[in-house]
């Protein structure tokens, strides 16, 4: 297929693009490159790219593509809460607009990167399936729920939207996100010896390796349209539902000498959900997750040690999305609605990449 990947320069996109190329697809990216310079290790293969804000894409720019993997988004709860209206604009309205433009341009497949965050505060400890009610507790979770609802209405014999509700991602990527819970716990344990929890640790989180998220996108593209048209799938493994405290203890055992602490006044996290992954196993036999949490922890330890990350580096804006956004805004380079205040020259982007630790 000829595939457009929005957000191809991000955490998931940097892993997805090489897998798509290896599978024989022709790939074009679309990204505003907010995180140029925020990288670790060798870059993925370069692909042709449209340097566009996803809010500004027109149907004619999508003509000729067979499929869109839509990753571009305000990427987490913390950034989403900086400007909730911007979060709705990017994650919900722009996503729905992109889907309408794709359908008008004759694009047949639209695979949307959604999130288990839309379950928000699922009651009890029962694992929720895709039929569960939405119960988001953040602007980020709400925006994903609204987008799914609106895009699903476009499904017909000519247009196949599919919604991948990713569990909480972890694992190595060229655009490493240090704030993701497991990435963070491993980095803190390794660089400081202290695994500090900012909550009581009782909240449930489903986990999935970033590479397995990418595999889910490939499986959705390969599946017969009638199997995935208008459908949502939780992406992950049943075995990888953990409380945050359990994750911290697993990390501590993997790094002897590290210890778990809680911040003063750490209380409950209202975001808590266990998730069932039966549907994706049944409908997408091509989805074969390869990673366990334990293997992912070791991967992170090896990578952090190989690149000799210090505590100051790991907790800097290079690996913390909200810190990067605030830094760009304080410097006057980024507006409150996450648009470049001035164009980012290609030379500046290239120079930023040269600052990375290899």
Question: Which SSEs are present, and which pair or pack?
Answer:
Blueprint: E1 2-6, H1 13-22, E2 26-30, E3 49-50, E4 67-70, H2 77-82, H3 84-104, E5 109-115, H4 139-152, E6 160-166, E7 168-170, H5 181-192, E8 194-197, E9 204-209, H6 210-222, H7 225-228, E10 232-235, E11 241-243, H8 244-254, E12 259-262, H9 278-283, H10 293-306, H11 311-314, H12 321-330, H13 346-353
Helix pairs in contact: 1-6, 3-4, 5-8, 5-10
Explained architecture:
The chain is built from 13 helices and twelve strands. It has helices at residues 13-22, 77-82, 84-104, 139-152, 181-192, 210-222, 225-228, 244-254, 278-283, 293-306, 311-314, 321-330, 346-353; strands spanning 2-6, 26-30, 49-50, 67-70, 109-115, 160-166, 168-170, 194-197, 204-209, 232-235, 241-243, 259-262. Helix 4 links the parallel strand 5 and strand 6. It is globular and about 55 Å long.
Please name the defining characteristics of this protein.
three-stranded mixed beta sheet; Rossmann fold; single chain; 12 strands; alpha/beta; 13 helices; disordered C terminus; 358 residues
- How many strands, what sense, and barrel or not for the largest sheet? 7 strands, parallel
CATH architecture: 3-Layer(aba) Sandwich
Spatial strand order of the main sheet: 3-2-1-4-5-6-10
Q: How many beta strands in the DSSP annotation? A: 12
Summarize the structure.
The protein is of the alpha/beta class and 358 residues long. It is built from 13 helices and 12 strands. It is 37% helix and 15% strand.
């Amino acid at each position: 297929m000829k595939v457009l990947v929005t957000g191809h320069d991000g955490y998931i996109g940097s892993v997805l693009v090489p897998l798509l190329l290896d599978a024989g697809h022709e790939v074009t990216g679309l990204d505003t490159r907010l995180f140029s310079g925020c990288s670790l290790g060798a870059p993925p293969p370069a692909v042709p790219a449209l340097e566009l804000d996803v809010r500004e894409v027109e149907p004619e720019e999508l003509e000729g593509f067979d499929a869109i993997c839509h990753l571009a988004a305000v990427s987490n709860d913390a950034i989403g809460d900086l400007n909730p209206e911007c979060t709705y604009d990017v994650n919900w309205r722009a996503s729905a607009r992109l889907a309408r433009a794709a359908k008008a341009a004759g694009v047949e497949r639209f695979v949307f990167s959604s999130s288990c965050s839309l379950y928000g505060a699922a009651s009890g400890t029962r694992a929720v399936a895709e039929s569960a009610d939405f119960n988001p507790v953040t602007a980020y979770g709400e925006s994903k729920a609204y987008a799914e609802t609106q895009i699903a209405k476009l499904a017909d014999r000519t247009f196949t939207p599919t919604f991948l509700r990713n569990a909480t991602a972890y694992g190595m990527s060229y655009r490493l996100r240090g704030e993701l819970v497991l990435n963070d716990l491993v980095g803190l344990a390794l660089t400081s010896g202290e695994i500090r929890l900012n909550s009581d640790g009782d909240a449930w989180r489903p986990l999935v390796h970033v590479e397995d998220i990418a595999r889910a996108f490939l499986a959705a593209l390969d599946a017969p349209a009638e199997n995935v048209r208008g459908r949502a799938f939780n992406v992950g493994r049943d075995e990888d539902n953990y409380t945050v405290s359990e994750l911290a203890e697993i990390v501590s055992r993997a790094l002897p000498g590290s210890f778990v602490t809680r911040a003063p006044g750490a209380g409950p996290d209202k975001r808590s959900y266990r998730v069932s992954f039966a549907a994706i196993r049944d409908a997408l036999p091509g989805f074969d997750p390869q990673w366990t949490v334990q293997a992912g922890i070791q991967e992170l330890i090896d990578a952090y040690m190989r690149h000799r990350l210090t505590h100051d580096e790991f907790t800097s804006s290079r690996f913390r999305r909200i810190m990067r956004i605030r830094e760009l805004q304080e410097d006057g380079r980024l507006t409150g609605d996450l648009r470049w205040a001035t164009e980012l020259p290609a030379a500046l982007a290239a120079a930023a990449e040269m600052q990375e630790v290899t």
